[in-house]
Amino acid sequence: MPKRKQPLQRVSRIKRMNPARKHRRFERAYHSESFCALVRWKGCVVRGCYTVPVQACHRVSRGAGGTWRDIFGACWLHHHESHHTGLHAFAVKYGLDLEAECASNVEEWLIMSKDG
Asked: pTM for this structure?
């Protein structure tokens, strides 16, 4: 068989993710943009850290079934640290109760959404 001089050309274009499916995945993981804005507005979960911007972090990873009810806010530095040290070690180091923090975010969101 002779050697090919040019690489194979793609016949069809790569399909994008179905927009409806993408929206459902986002809702399961983050609920809404306004909920993430609330979490970011509250600031970094580590006391005494005033670094901005704040990211929405999952207490239980999305791959392990984490949903929007498992979100807390952390600056990029502490978010990165939580991934590298592990969430348990991260919580112990800073004296955090991440489960209570996430529950607080959800409770506050539910109260705010009822008012509006």
From this structure: 0.76
